[in-house]
């Protein structure tokens, strides 16, 4: 192809936070906002990229993307390199990147970008996209090895498997995905910015991952999915709190699936509140700006409100009953389709 375009969606995670890299459960959905990448063939093995929203540019040799870049450039270098490494090299491309999912907001602009880049570059090269779980892993490797954030697969799986009208119950141990109809019966989910942006590479995210590894080592298990219910009693602080969060959060995901199945939206609101309390007190990934936003949303009548995504800033997700009104700066969100060529 001489010119293609691909769209990668952002995501909302209804519940199941900091569980993905612990082989646990999550309940995300893709949203209508995301990142669009257009790609045109370019001779001479060059990649030229332009991030339209940031008014920034980049150029490098397709065969040897440089290491050490930051921000959006690291994603472009990493995707080009990883596609080459799996035998689907980029011959040369001129890329234009534009999006409407706010950066550093907890809505995973990063997976929106990486999935759109991967689909656009594969289509430009007339290469098959192949298995989407493998593509999610590739995008995740880029984030781990090129961007420096030890993130899990939640965002990439949500972006690549999202479906309108459904949330996805992800089991990150076997990567099974169950579509869960998201029938909110007139209730609304909305996301409000805390005003405190973040990057996972620079926040306490990697430290939390290291703590989970330390807890596994102390318990003699491979992943916290295998942690027994009494594991917190056998660990020193703060590892006891970290493990308690993971254990209780996994249970909340299945409780949320049941609540949705039963149409019990008040129960879903309570689970969202409980998730926030656990992320604040046990996992300790909240910050003042987030707490103020949670309080503001609760005061506006939210049945539940919680920090979403990697933490240390970003957005707050809230659930509103039909008679309550999300505040003006909150964006109403609903499940939309997966990453695709457009
Ligand atoms: C970020 C990461 C995900 C996941 C969440 C926390 O969004 O990219 O892999 O760990 O944080 O649930």
Walkthrough of the structure:
The protein is of the alpha+beta class and about 350 residues long. The protein is built from eight helices and 13 strands. The protein has helices at about 70-85, 110-125, 130-145, 155-160, 205-220, 240-260, 265-280, 290-300, and strands at about 5-15, 25, 30-40, 45-50, 55-60, 95-100, 165-170, 175-180, 190-195, 305, 315-320, 330-335, 340. Strands 5-4-6-3-1-13 form a six-stranded mixed beta sheet. A hairpin with a 4-residue loop joins strand 4 and strand 5 (about 55-60). The longest helix is centred in the last third of the chain and has 24 residues, at about 240-260. It is globular and about 60 Å long. The two termini are about 15 Å apart. The mean pLDDT is about 95. Alpha-D-galactopyranose binds near residues 18, 155, 309 and 310. Alpha-D-galactopyranose (GLA) binds near residues 20 and 155.
Blueprint (SSEs and pairs):
Blueprint: E1 3-13, E2 25-26, E3 28-41, E4 46-51, E5 56-61, H1 71-85, E6 93-99, H2 109-124, H3 132-147, H4 154-161, E7 166-171, E8 176-181, E9 188-193, H5 205-219, H6 239-262, H7 265-281, H8 288-299, E10 304-307, E11 315-320, E12 331-333, E13 340-341
Parallel strand pairs: 4-6
Antiparallel strand pairs: 1-3, 1-13, 2-7, 3-6, 4-5, 7-8, 9-11, 9-12, 10-11
Helix pairs in contact: 1-2, 1-3, 2-3, 2-4, 3-4, 5-6, 6-7
Features:
six-stranded mixed β-sheet; four-stranded antiparallel β-sheet; 23% strand; alpha+beta; 342 residues; 36% helix
Brief account:
With 342 residues, this protein is α+β, with helices and mostly antiparallel strands.
Q: Considering DSSP H and I runs of 4 or more, what fraction of the residues is helical?
A: 25-40%
Question: What class would the helix/strand composition place it in?
Answer: alpha+beta
Shape: globular
Q: For the largest beta sheet, what order do the strands appear in spatially?
A: 5-4-6-3-1-13
Q: Helical region count?
A: 8
* Helix-strand sequence: EEEEEHEHHHEEEHHHHEEEE
Q: What is the first-to-last residue Cα distance? A: 14 Å
Average residue-wise pLDDT: 96
- List cofactors, ions and other ligands: alpha-D-galactopyranose
Enumerate the spans where pLDDT stays under 50 for 5 or more consecutive residues.
none
Strand content bin? 15-25%
Radius of gyration, in Å, reads 20 Å
Sketch the major β-sheet: 6 strands, mixed
Number-wise, the strands total 13
């Amino acid at each position: 192809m001489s010119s293609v375009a691909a769209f990668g969606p952002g995501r909302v995670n209804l519940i199941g936070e900091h569980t993905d890299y612990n082989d646990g459960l999550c309940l995300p959905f893709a949203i209508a906002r995301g990142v669009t990448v257009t790609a045109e063939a370019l001779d001479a093995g060059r990649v030229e990229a332009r991030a339209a929203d940031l008014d920034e540019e980049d150029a490098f040799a397709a065969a040897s993307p440089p290491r050490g870049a930051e921000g959006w450039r690291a994603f472009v270098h990493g995707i080009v390199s990883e596609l080459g490494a799996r035998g689907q090299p980029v011959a040369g491309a001129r890329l234009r990147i534009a999006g409407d999912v706010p950066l550093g907001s907890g809505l995973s602009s990063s997976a929106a970008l990486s999935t759109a880049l991967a689909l656009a570059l594969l289509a430009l090269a007339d290469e098959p996209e192949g298995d989407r779980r493998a593509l999610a892993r590739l995008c995740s490797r880029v984030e781990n090895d090129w961007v420096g954030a030890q993130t899990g697969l939640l965002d990439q799986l949500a972006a690549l498997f999202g479906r309108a009208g459904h949330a996805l119950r992800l089991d990150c141990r076997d990567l099974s995905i169950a579509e869960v109809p998201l029938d909110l019966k007139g209730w609304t989910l909305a996301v409000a910015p805390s005003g405190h942006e973040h990057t996972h590479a620079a926040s306490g995210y990697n430290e939390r991952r290291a703590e989970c590894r330390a807890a596994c080592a102390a318990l003699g298990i491979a992943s916290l999915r295998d942690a027994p219910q009494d594991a917190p009693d056998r660990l020193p602080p703060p590892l006891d709190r970290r493990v308690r969060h993971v254990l209780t959060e996994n249970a909340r995901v299945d409780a949320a699936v049941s609540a949705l199945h039963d149409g019990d939206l008040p129960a879903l609101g309570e689970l969202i509140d409980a998730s926030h309390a656990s992320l604040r007190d046990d996992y300790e990934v909240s910050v003042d700006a987030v707490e103020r936003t949670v309080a503001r949303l609760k005061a506006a009548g939210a049945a539940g409100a919680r920090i979403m995504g990697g933490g240390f800033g970003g957005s707050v997700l809230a659930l509103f009953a039909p008679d309550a009104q999300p505040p003006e700066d909150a964006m109403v969100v609903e499940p939309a389709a997966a990453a695709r060529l457009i």
